[in-house]
Amino acid sequence: MRPGDVLSYDYTIAKCFMFTTMIFGIVGMLVGVIIAFQLAYPDLNYIAGQYSAFGRLRPLHTNGVVYGFMLSGIFASWYYVGQRVLKVSMAESKFLMAIGKMHFILYVIVIALAVVSLLAGVTTSKEYAELEWPIDILVVITWVLWGISIFGLIGIRREKTLYISLWYYIAAFLGVAMLYLFNNMEIPTRLLTGMGSWLHSVSMYAGTNDALVQWWWGHNAVAFVFTVAILAQVYYYLPKESGQAVFSYKLSLFSFWSLMFVYLWAGGHHLIYSTVPDWMQTMGSVFSVVLILPSWGSGINILLTMRGEWNQLRENPLIKFMLWGTTFYMFSTLEGPILSIKSVNALAHFTDWIPGHVHDGTLGWVGFMTVAALYHMAPRVFKREIYSKSLMETQFWIQTIGIVLFFSSMWIAGITQGMMWRATDEFGILSYSFIDTVEALKPYYWIRAIGGLLYLVGFFIFTYNMIKTFTSSKKLDKEPLNASPMAA
C-alpha cells in the first residue's frame, strides 16, 4: 500500500457471519420459546414424539443461542473490528482470506452436526459441553482457525498499538481454548469396552473431579463468550457510534486484568452444598463477590463514555441498545455474586431464579450488544443506510418488555419454589409436595413464555430490518463517520 492510498477493507467473511447470526438467532430463540411454552403447557412435549420433548430441545436451545447466535455475532464483529483497529485488510493476505473462509465453512458444518446429534439424543450431558468427541475435534479445529486469523492479522498490522477491544478478543480465544480442551477430555466407550457406539464417550475425570472441571469450564464459558467477547465489541462500537472517546483507558485495563484473574476461579459457586471440599465452595463464593469490581468497572466505564451526550439516547437507537445492554450487564453481574452467597444459594439453587438470572444477562446484555453491532456494521459493510429507525425503536421496546417479563416472572417463581421447598408445619414435616410447587408456578411459566415470545418477535423485526437494509435501502456514497444513517 502506497502513501496516500485509501485502505479498503474486505468484509466477505464478516458478511457471512452476519447472516448466520440472524439465522441461528431465530432458530435458537424459536426453540427457546417452544420449550418455555412446554413448561406452561406440558402437552406440547408430545407434538412430534421424542424429538419435541423438552429434554431433546433444551440443549438444542442453549447450544443454538450460545454457539450459534452469540459466536456468529462475535466472529462477524472480529472480521470487521480486527481490520479497522489494526489498519489492515484481509484481502492483503490470500492465506488469511483462505483461513477465514475455512473458518466459516467448518463452523457452519459444526453447527449443523450439533443440531442433528442433539436432536438424536447424542450428548455428553455436560452443560455447555454436550457435543460428543468427534464434533469436539471439529470445534477445536474451528477455534484454531479463528486464532490463526486473530494472530495472523495482528502480525501484518500497520497500527502498532493494540486497542483494548483486541485484548478482549485475544482473551476470549485463549480462555475458551484452554478450558474447552481440559473439560472435554473424553474417551470413546467402544475404545474402552469394544462395545457400543463410537459416538459415545466417557469423561477422563470421575465424580467430584469431573464436576469441578465441568464448572471450571461452564462458568467460564459465560466469562469468555458471554462477557469478554461482548466487552470487546462495546469498547469499539460505542465510541464509534457516539463519537465519544472511552471514559478511561486505564479503567478498561484495570477491569481487563482483574476480570481475567478473578473470573477463572468463580465457577465453584455452582457446586455449593455438593460433595466438593467446602474450601472450594467458599473460594467460589468469595471470588464471585469480588467479581463485582471488574464487572462494574467495565460497566461504569461504558456508561461514563456518554457523559454530556445523553441526548443521543433519544436520537440514536443504537446507543439505546448499547447503554441498556450495559445496564443489564451491571445488573446481572451484581445478581450473580448475590446468588453465590451460601445463605442466598440455599434458597435459590435449583430454582427458576437461576434461568431468570442467566436470561437477563443473555437477552439484555449479549442480545442487545449483538444487535447493535450488526446495526452499526450494516451501513459500512453493505454501503446502505439502515432501512427503518422506527422499526429499531419498536424492536427495542418490544424486546425490553419481553426481557422484563421473563426475568421478573422467574425471580418470583424461583423465590416461591425455594420458600415452598423448605416450608414445614409444626411437626417439622414438609408442607408442600413437589407437584404443589409445580402447580404454583404455572402462571409464572406463562408470563415467562410470553416474555420470550415478545423477544423473538423483536428479533424477527430486527431480521426484517436488516434484510431490507441489505436489499432495498438507500445506497450510501460514502461511509458515515459516527452515527449510522437511518431512514425514518
UniProtKB/TrEMBL annotation:
This is cytochrome-c oxidase. It is an enzyme of class 7 (translocase). Belongs to the heme-copper respiratory oxidase family. Cu cation binds at H219, H269, H270. It catalyses: 4 Fe(II)-[cytochrome c] + O2 + 8 H(+)(in) = 4 Fe(III)-[cytochrome c] + 2 H2O + 4 H(+)(out). It holds the Pfam family COX1. Heme b 2; high-spin binds at H357. Coiled coil: none annotated. One of its GO terms (biological process) is oxidative phosphorylation. The chain crosses the membrane at residues 12-40, 60-81, 102-121, 133-154, 166-182, 215-238, 245-266, 286-306, 318-338, 358-375, 396-415, 445-467. It comes from Campylobacter portucalensis. Its main location: membrane. Its cofactor is Cu(2+); heme b; heme. InterPro entries: Cyt_c_oxase-like_su1_dom, Cyt_c_oxase-like_su1_sf, Cyt_C_Oxase_1, Cyt_c_Oxase_su1_BS, Cyt_c_oxidase_cbb3_su1. GO terms for cellular component: plasma membrane. Binds 1 copper ion per subunit, denoted as copper B.
